[in-house]
Amino acid sequence: MQFKRYYTPNRELSIDESLVETKARTVMTQYIPTKAHKFGNKLWMLVEATSGYIIHFLPYRGKRYDPVPADDTKGSHIVKKLMTEANLFNKNYHVFCDNFFTSIPLVRHIGTLRTYFKGTLRANRQMPQLLRNPQLRENESLFIRQRELICVAYKEKQNRKTVRFVTSVVKASAPAHGHKPVVSSVYSKNMGGVDLNDIISDIYDDKRKTKTMWNRLAINIFYQMVLNALATEQIEHRQHRDRNVQAAHQPQRIKKLARGKQKNCIVCS
């Protein structure tokens, strides 16, 4: 994978799954009812949170060809593998994941590798008992902290489920009445990198039908290359524009001339 060679991503990264539409009958074909295209080949994606730039991805090849260590979960294993192959550990990056990937042991492990984490937590994962069954009212939050690890439970409305977060970087700040916790706002802002990439890819997809799975994967990878080139160009243009705006707003310094007539001065000569 050469994507990470030509661009250094910003601090915030997001990891999620993407689905390449196909109904080919293979061990790689997945059914995900929450996706727009419910059948397809799953890709584990590591992208920049703000631009959707793909840094690294892995195809899901099925349980037979992608075994998981006995002492780990599938999601945790994918996060470690993506970050290791992209060579992004020990560089102070912030990783955002949904509840499929998140676990407290994962947050502690990557914390030892100078990598920070924010994600939602499933109710059946390892967590403090107080966080598993919190008694919260509307717009109420619960914070639990152990060293650098912070767990948050938040209930936005009375008829909604409690959302659990785990983070190793956001402060445990109590929100004002009627506002979400800081960790919830930061998570919502930076978690949509893969979804942004899927939306842009779907715009340019020609929906060409094929019975061969590898054709769909090859076409999708080509689209990702084009989109990465487009994202890089847009980022460079934005940075160049910001530099020009900053230079235009800098105060102009006026130099004081020495006394007497100046040689070759249009005003004095």
TrEMBL record:
Superkingdom assignment: Eukaryota
All residue ranges annotated as the PiggyBac transposable element-derived protein domain in the record: 2-229
Name used for this protein in its record: PiggyBac transposable element-derived protein domain-containing protein
Organism from which the protein derives: Mytilus coruscus
Matches recorded under InterPro entries: PGBD
